[in-house]
Amino acid sequence: MSADAGELNSPQYDKSKLKSVGEDVFISAQVEIRRSNLVSIGNHVAIDSGLYLTCQAEIGDYIHIGPGVIIIGGPKGLLQMGHFTNIALGSKILCASDEFLGDSLITTPGIPLEYTKVIIKPVIFERFANVCANVVILPGVTLGEGSVVGACSLVTKDTEPWTIYVGIPARPLKMRQKEKMLEYAKKLGYFN
Question: Secretion signal: which residues (predicted)?
């Protein structure tokens, strides 16, 4: 991971709190990880300031999580990020959410759980999947291998591999080239 001198000299998050952490990992000191014992991070990862993470996370290799990213889901929620994936600044990943159909109350302090209905489903980034700035992803979505979601989009359903999505809700725009990415990943020791 190539970091500039300013990043390397910046205070970092105490990585000893994490379930596991690989090599060449930068985590800004200005992050909040609520359940650090449920978070595993691979190699060559950079996590910028402003991350707010409340759920389990399995983060692979060669990953960047940009500034101001929010990932929620509580102790039962799960985010899985395959190798070579990224979340750009300001994006929001919901691994859990209240159901808003009217047959329950929303989850707030003081409301008994039997009166609430929470949807808890993992959000999965298959390898090479990326989201651009200010994307929102709802519970249960799998981003197919190599798929990209354009800025300010809302993802409510799984994405197809190597496809670019945009809009609210996100819709396929066009196919994405994969040959060079796979070639470079192979040179780094990863196989198709």
Answer: none
